[in-house]
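hey m, so remember when u said the tokens were messed up on ur end? i reran from scratch. heres the input so u can diff it against urs
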Amino acid sequence: MGYLALYRKYRPKNFDEVVGQESIIKILKNQIKYDRVGHAYLFSGIRGTGKTSLAKVFAKAINCPNNQDGNPCNSCEVCHKLDSSGVMDIIEIDGASNRGVDEIREIREKVKYPPVVGRYKVYIIDEVHMLTKEAFNALLKTLEEPPEHIVFILATTEPQKCPTTILSRCQRFEIKPISVNLIAAQLKKISQDLKLKISDESLFFIAERGDQSMRDALSLMDQIIDLKDDQGSIEFDEMLSFLGMAGQNQINQLLESIFQKDPGTTIFKLRELKDSGRESALIMDQIIRTLRDMLIVKTTGQLKERILKLNPATISAYEDLVTSISLLELTNATDFLIQEKNKMKYSSLQDVILEIACIRLAMAHDQSGVLPVESLRKPSRTDELLNPAPKAMPKQESPAVLDKEIVNSSVFMPEKKVNSAHKEAEETEEVGQAEAAQAPEQVPKQMPESKKSPDTDKIFARLCQQIGPAQCMFLKKAHPEFDGKVFSIAFSEEDQSYVSFIDTPQHREEFENILREETGQDIKVNVSVEKENFSELDLMEKTKRIVNDPSIEISHQ
């Protein structure tokens, strides 16, 4: 027999060999032990987590006369026959290539025939969401009331594309993504079986690249195996070079030089990575992922291990990095690099884009504490209250300081002239003073009653400080309103996913205590989604929503 890919060679032969699906395995084994086998099952989840493997093991186990604790024995005559290609008691169908109504009608005709060697005839339909609407309709009746000897097992990566009439007729099992630790442990067993000498660091790296998919990790390891030398050893640096990626320590050192405001070292380290064959797009991806992991380490406390599921040494390195970096710096740097990453998709100058992006980040923190990265987004009123801007510098500054300020302010806004804003402000002020001098004395018009009290922003800023930095990022997306009786926190429809993080009993109690301190009254808090009617907006606001770019000024002509 020819060479078998690792994911086929090490496909689970019983439930105990399936990785990371303990609760589902317990249910399936108990159904077999207590003779409660259903007629239709749906296994859903991301690719490479064991949907088809579970289906095959289950199909064999319900037919094995000597099953042991719900597992097939894999040694009896029935198990051997089911493993052979001549017996058609377990039928696998690819839903992508057999998606028409004619193929499903053929299944309906064949289900009347009893199994040959076992108790059940099992149909495994992979990628079932690819069936046409007519094919699903043809399957409905058979799926709901099949003959007693028929079991359907449907597998899909996109269950939302299956009709609810199909979903409601199946026992549904959501196959979970597999953690990095479990994948690394399985890779270690396989490497020992193959007599490979490979470090735990390499195994964790392969597991992380697998992106919670056992099959993806095994496919990657299938390639890396051939890097071994005569003694069966695989070097970590050689593996990284083959993949075109940097080691995590190298990425950490690069970020350290960026946040230490050292553009020279930053470029030197980037050049080292490029000279060793690393790809710019992959380096950018690794930097963004690392910043994301650092954000989680900084904001989630003791939950970081359960969220990240990374090597403990990697998490420890992140903890050392984030001690001297603020949450604002991390979020701004991440937002900026994601924007730069989008530019790389359509450019042949990926090296240049990466280098300039890293230089900008390294130069974004000068000694005055100014963060030009902030200019990437329009600051909210809450930002101004939580992070007040430093006082304006006196006009009698030396030319050197002014030049430095101009360089810093133009790093992220090359298209804007620094002095134009000051000039426009002065002209506007002069015109306003002239009009005020010429205007006759008038009785001031009564302003319409506003829903927002003068203290609304101040109270909202206190709410943001109270719930901590992680939830504060979500809360700042909301629009506060206070009518003296109810304090409303309204999210737009596009930000409605943040409501669940804010609208909790604990946060409500904290908010009401702050309102009681500020107003001396018991004020209720209302968290809601603000459904905006676009047709009711004025022309200026409609134009702003369509353009959706705060850097572009919209004005009446």
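this time it looks ok to me. Confidence is low (pLDDT under 50) at residues 366-383, 393-425, 435-452. if urs says something different then somethings off w ur setup not the seq
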